[in-house]
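Hi U.,

Before I forget, here's the chain from the pilot set. I'm dumping it here mostly so it's searchable later in email.
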Amino acid sequence: MEIKNIIRNGIPKEHIFYFFVANILFANSSHADINNIGGYLSLTYTSNYFDTDDHRSIRNLNWSGNLNYTFNNNHTFYLDSGGYRVYEDETDTYLTDTVIGIKNNEIFPWGETGHIGYAAQLTLPTSELSEKDELYTALRLSMPITNKWDNFNYFFTPRVKKNFHKYKTAGEKNLTEWVASFNTGIGYKWHDFKVNLSLLAGTGWNYHGTRYDWDYSGALTGLWQITPHFYTALSTSNSGVYFDAERGTVGDIDIFNLNTATYSIAVGYSF
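Structure:
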């Protein structure tokens, strides 16, 4: 969905329900301690190794935002949304999907410093792709498992997602019903600097039960907390397929391949 179309036509009627839910989730925040409200705004420029004249060139400008309200022993309501500007091929401005959720990363302790939590979120289909596929919403459940040792912290989060479309197909494309994935990573903090290595991998099934390949997205990020509120970050990331559903293993996970990696610089404000 193009931003100019939203301005001209307004919010689709079928999305009003989600904004009603968001209003309920944050209704009490106006009466709560301002310290319980937080979030961030970020702006990221992404490019790859190729020259801008090369047909393989990728250049995007992304923006994202988060608003959250914490209550009752670290339970947090959150709202995430954003968009991006494409500077190659089909140059235009797009929105990403918006999500509304609740989470708590410290429900069950394990060991001396570990915790097991939960997160549940609903998708508001504000992206162009979701609009084309006539996605009503999606429900994703996850279970973050975290621990830390000295200046190191690490996490492993299994996730499952159920999509709800109006139809099982869109044009000649079979749509995805289920997605199973995991997100894992390790980080190191030294004063105002952080380094994180993360990996997201998963697979899916369409409405006819056909399983897709296992694919991945990995990233190495360095972040500098310039002030208590402003930060900047540099990262390299890559994605690909590492297990074919029919042929088995097809390759290794490679984050630093110059031919396929992308590089990003971000600035952000947290509150």
